[in-house]
Design goal:
Order of helices and strands: HEEHHHH
Number of strands: 2
Distance between the termini: 105 Å
Strand content: 5-15%
Structural class: mainly alpha
Largest sheet: 2 strands, antiparallel
Number of helices: 5
Strand order of the largest sheet: 1-2
Shape: rod-shaped
Length: about 130
Amino acid sequence: MKRDQVTARKILAAKYPFACCAICGLEIETCLQVAHLDQNATNNAPENLAYLCPTHHWMYDAALYPIEAIWLLQAHWQKTEGEPNHSGRMKDAGPKAAKTRGRRAAAKKAVATRRANKLALEAKFETQS
């Protein structure tokens, strides 16, 4: 059986409608290549195909990425469709920011109080001498 990129692209588009590089998320379809993950160009099984940009296709072929990583990333891009989701990292950003603002305000108040106390003490010593 010979290589059939047109069929591979159709199968890939049916399985993964959001077309982007599985690694970096590049969405320029004219730049995307169909990668055969088992290195067999005649195996057009959907789980054997992935969109990759030329750089990441070369890196995958050089065994710099495991196939499991491609599967995970490909699933991620299909789920998010390129929309960033920072909720996992930002789940407590609001409360942390509020706590920081509170500490900063308390520190400024403490500095102002120390300054005022120091000036009052200096003024007291000046009047005594």
